[in-house]
Amino acid sequence: MLTESRARLALAAVCLGFVMITLDATIVNLALPAIGADLGEPSTAALQWIVDAYTVTLAAFLLTWGAAGDRWGSRRVFEVGVALFVVASVACALAGDAAWLIAARAVQGAGAAALLPSSLALIVHQFPDPRERARALGVWGGMSGVGLAAGPVLGGLAVGLADWRLVFAVNVPVGIVAIVLTRRAVAEPPRHETTRLDLAGQLTGTASLAGLVAGFIESGHAGRLAPTTIALLAAGVVAGVVFVAVERRVGEPVLPLGILKIRNFAVATAIGGLFNFCLYGTLFCLALYLQRAWSLGALAAGLTLVPLTVVVALNAFFSGRLTGRSGPRVPMIAGALAGLVGSAGFALLPADRALVLFVVVSAVYGCCSLAMPAMTSLAMNSLPGQAGLAAGVLNASRQTGGAIGVALVGALLPATGMWLVAGGFALVAGLALVERQSS
Predict the structure, then answer these.
(1) Which residues contact 41 (CB under 8 A, 6 or more apart)?
(2) CB of 379 closer than 8 Å to CB of 398
(3) In this structure, how many other beta carbons lie within 10 angstroms of the beta carbon of residue 3?
(4) What mean pLDDT value characterizes the chain?
């Protein structure tokens, strides 16, 4: 049993590593115009790939790294993930063209995929008491909110005050501190050395996700009925069908389909995908909108997003305490309704620079983060004894949703894209009600 001080230090180490990966999911958004100008890639499709190369590989490798953590040790996998993430961040900062940056972002995503499920598994092991675990998951979820929310602001500050390469270089000292603290304070959970890795499932799942995301991005660039769009989407669907067939046959699938029959876990997983679809799509869309439609610089656009990001971070922390006291239902429903109202508000914004109205809508929308720690708590408690698997599946769903959100919503202006987001939050509210009935 860990002492209280060591448990807190362990939680800090895990959260410090975790906040890097959520930060890098959004920190590039306000830097994208500067990156495009510097690297000679002004098209929206290229900018979307700079974001989605990260989220696609993050989503694709989560399940395999979750199983690897169960087999080789979650702490070891966590440390490997942080190290890989730091090395890839250096490569991003040194990128000389868009192809280099996209490739380095993909490696970043692979490192993040190792870090994310292992961080959750480590928290579950460090905090065996359910109430303490709920609070710790609340802190973990709050750090997710901090990372996602601070990303656009810090990206704008980096571009406005220095250079876009700083958004990647900052990961180096943070990652080093995370590894040092992990070695000092984090206890290694028991290993399950008989766990096997499902390479066929990994390959077909990755191909399906990459094909679908590429098709959605191409649809915004070349048109929904363009031959390339149709071919990519068809390839993604076919690979998805093969993936399901593989998972039904192998002895230890990367995604055991049976766990999706556990109602609360299936609900949490679906909410996670929809939530990130909405949030990632919104942040990408607003970052480009403020700079292109309002003609704001990166720094000014980042400051304009401060009300949204602050509310996201604060409510993510508050949700952890609320979830620990009352369970996940209320914060999930409240977050979904706030997101629905806020996204509708963004869709109805006037074309001119209505700054006060934008701030008010941003504050309402930011309350959507109430759902983040709640969905995580619901998922982890639905699969006791399988923390690595639960974390991997939940976060694979979340990152898949985020990648598709950037691809679909990112190419649209708020007047159109935010109605799509509002529909996503309506589905989240409906799923949360289903969980309530099953409790």
Answers:
(1) 35, 47, 97, 98
(2) no
(3) 9
(4) 83
Q: How far apart are CA 261 and CA 239, in angstroms?
A: 22
pLDDT of residue 439: 43
State the pLDDT confidence band at 176, using cuts at 50, 70 and 90.
very high
Query: What CA–CA distance (Å, rounded) separates 130 from 145?
Result: 22
| pLDDT at 2 exceeding the cut of 60 | no
* Angle ∠(158,159,163) on CA atoms, nearest 5: 85
The pLDDT score that the predictor gives to residue 101 is 93
pLDDT, tens digit, 9 for 90 and up, residues 115-134: 887 887 788 777 777 777 77
What pLDDT is attached to residue 365? 95
pLDDT digits (tens, 9 = 90+) for 308-333: 888 887 887 777 777 777 788 889 99
CA dihedral sign, ordered 70, 75, 76, 82: positive
The pLDDT assigned to 388 comes to: 65
For residue 84, give the nearest of 105, 51, 52, 107 by alpha carbon.
107
343 with 422: CB under 8 angstroms?
yes
Residues with Cβ within 8 Å of 425's Cβ and at least 6 positions away in sequence, in order, are 274, 278, 336, 337, 339, 340, 343, 368
Q: Are 251 and 202 in contact (CB under 8 A)?
A: no
Per-residue tokens: 374 = 């709640």
The string of pLDDT tens digits covering residues 385-406 is: 676 677 778 878 888 888 888 8
Amino acid 52: pLDDT: 81
Which residues fall within 8 angstroms of residue 75, CB to CB, at 6 or more apart?
118, 122, 182, 186, 187, 188, 189
Q: Which two tokens stand for residue 387?
A: 């923390």
Q: Tokens representing 433?
A: 């009600």
Element housing 20 (H / E) = helix 4-26
Contact 23/154 with Cβ under 8 angstroms?
Answer: yes
How far apart are the C-alpha atoms of 98 and 352, rounded to whole Å? 33
**Can you say how many angstroms the Cα of residue 336 is from the centroid of all Cα atoms in its chain?**
17
The count of residues in the chain is 439
Structure tokens, 35: 């990156």
pTM recorded for the entire structure: 0.78
| Whole-angstrom distance, CA of residue 295 vs CA of residue 90 | 31
Q: Which two tokens stand for residue 331?
A: 């914060």
